[in-house]
Amino acid sequence: MNWLKRLFSRRRRYDALGAQRGTVVGAFVRQGMWLTIVGITIGLVIAFATLRFMSALLYGVSAHDPTTYITITCAVVIAALLACYLPSRRAAEVDQLLPYGLNRSIASLRCT
Q1: Cα Rg of the chain (Å, integer)
Q2: Quick one: which of 43, 106, 103, 32 has its CA closest to 72?
Q3: Cα(44)–Cα(40) distance, rounded to whole angstroms?
Protein backbone atom coordinates (compact mmCIF):
# COMPACT_ATOMS: atom_id res chain seq x y z
CA MET A 1 0.00 0.00 0.00
CA ASN A 2 2.96 2.31 0.52
CA TRP A 3 3.79 2.32 -3.21
CA LEU A 4 0.20 3.31 -3.98
CA LYS A 5 0.41 6.23 -1.58
CA ARG A 6 3.64 7.42 -3.23
CA LEU A 7 2.11 7.03 -6.69
CA PHE A 8 -0.82 9.31 -5.93
CA SER A 9 1.22 11.82 -3.95
CA ARG A 10 3.57 12.19 -6.92
CA ARG A 11 0.64 12.50 -9.25
CA ARG A 12 -0.88 15.31 -7.21
CA ARG A 13 2.46 17.01 -6.77
CA TYR A 14 3.53 17.13 -10.39
CA ASP A 15 0.15 16.73 -12.06
CA ALA A 16 1.96 15.36 -15.11
CA LEU A 17 0.20 12.04 -15.68
CA GLY A 18 -1.90 12.49 -18.76
CA ALA A 19 -0.88 16.11 -19.26
CA GLN A 20 -0.06 17.42 -22.71
CA ARG A 21 3.59 18.10 -23.52
CA GLY A 22 2.98 21.82 -23.84
CA THR A 23 1.37 21.92 -20.42
CA VAL A 24 4.34 20.23 -18.77
CA VAL A 25 6.87 22.43 -20.55
CA GLY A 26 4.84 25.55 -19.78
CA ALA A 27 4.61 24.69 -16.09
CA PHE A 28 8.36 24.16 -15.73
CA VAL A 29 9.25 27.28 -17.71
CA ARG A 30 6.71 29.38 -15.82
CA GLN A 31 8.07 28.26 -12.45
CA GLY A 32 11.68 28.80 -13.53
CA MET A 33 11.01 32.23 -14.97
CA TRP A 34 9.13 33.24 -11.83
CA LEU A 35 12.23 32.41 -9.78
CA THR A 36 14.37 34.29 -12.30
CA ILE A 37 12.25 37.43 -12.07
CA VAL A 38 12.35 37.31 -8.27
CA GLY A 39 16.13 36.86 -8.35
CA ILE A 40 16.65 39.70 -10.82
CA THR A 41 14.45 42.00 -8.74
CA ILE A 42 16.37 41.21 -5.56
CA GLY A 43 19.68 41.60 -7.42
CA LEU A 44 18.73 44.99 -8.87
CA VAL A 45 17.55 46.26 -5.49
CA ILE A 46 20.85 45.22 -3.91
CA ALA A 47 22.80 46.71 -6.84
CA PHE A 48 21.08 50.06 -6.49
CA ALA A 49 21.45 49.97 -2.70
CA THR A 50 25.21 49.39 -2.93
CA LEU A 51 25.73 51.76 -5.86
CA ARG A 52 27.88 54.17 -3.90
CA PHE A 53 30.18 51.43 -2.60
CA MET A 54 30.51 49.61 -5.91
CA SER A 55 31.40 52.72 -7.96
CA ALA A 56 34.95 52.63 -6.56
CA LEU A 57 35.39 49.05 -7.81
CA LEU A 58 34.19 49.67 -11.38
CA TYR A 59 36.75 50.55 -14.03
CA GLY A 60 35.67 52.11 -17.29
CA VAL A 61 31.96 51.74 -16.51
CA SER A 62 29.78 54.25 -14.75
CA ALA A 63 27.81 53.02 -11.78
CA HIS A 64 24.73 54.67 -13.30
CA ASP A 65 25.10 53.01 -16.71
CA PRO A 66 21.64 51.71 -17.73
CA THR A 67 23.07 49.80 -20.70
CA THR A 68 25.02 47.53 -18.36
CA TYR A 69 21.99 46.79 -16.21
CA ILE A 70 19.78 46.09 -19.22
CA THR A 71 22.40 43.89 -20.94
CA ILE A 72 23.09 41.79 -17.86
CA THR A 73 19.39 41.44 -17.08
CA CYS A 74 18.64 40.27 -20.64
CA ALA A 75 21.56 37.82 -20.55
CA VAL A 76 20.32 36.32 -17.28
CA VAL A 77 16.74 36.04 -18.59
CA ILE A 78 17.89 34.33 -21.81
CA ALA A 79 20.15 31.92 -19.91
CA ALA A 80 17.35 31.08 -17.45
CA LEU A 81 14.83 30.59 -20.26
CA LEU A 82 17.13 28.14 -22.02
CA ALA A 83 17.98 26.43 -18.73
CA CYS A 84 14.26 25.91 -18.05
CA TYR A 85 13.02 25.15 -21.56
CA LEU A 86 15.56 22.63 -22.85
CA PRO A 87 15.40 20.13 -19.95
CA SER A 88 11.62 20.48 -19.62
CA ARG A 89 11.15 19.76 -23.32
CA ARG A 90 13.24 16.62 -22.98
CA ALA A 91 11.41 15.58 -19.82
CA ALA A 92 8.03 16.09 -21.51
CA GLU A 93 8.97 13.58 -24.22
CA VAL A 94 9.37 10.77 -21.67
CA ASP A 95 6.42 8.43 -21.25
CA GLN A 96 4.82 9.37 -17.91
CA LEU A 97 4.06 5.76 -17.01
CA LEU A 98 7.63 4.56 -17.54
CA PRO A 99 8.92 5.47 -14.02
CA TYR A 100 6.07 3.46 -12.52
CA GLY A 101 7.06 0.29 -14.36
CA LEU A 102 4.19 0.43 -16.84
CA ASN A 103 4.06 1.05 -20.53
CA ARG A 104 1.19 2.40 -22.60
CA SER A 105 0.05 -0.94 -24.01
CA ILE A 106 -0.20 -2.63 -20.59
CA ALA A 107 -1.85 0.40 -19.02
CA SER A 108 -4.45 0.62 -21.79
CA LEU A 109 -5.32 -3.08 -21.37
CA ARG A 110 -5.81 -2.70 -17.64
CA CYS A 111 -7.96 0.41 -17.90
CA THR A 112 -10.46 -0.97 -20.42
Answers
A1: 22
A2: 43
A3: 6
Please report, to the nearest 10 degrees, the dihedral formed by the alpha carbons of residues 22, 26, 29, 30 taken in order: 180
Q: Cα(26)–Cα(1) distance, rounded to whole angstroms?
A: 33
What pTM did the predictor assign? 0.65
d(CA 65, CA 59): 12
Contact 5, 12 (CB under 8 A): no
Tell me, what amino acid is at 94? V
Encode pLDDT of 7-52 as tens digits. 555 444 455 556 677 787 888 898 889 999 999 999 999 988 888 7
Length of the chain, in residues: 112
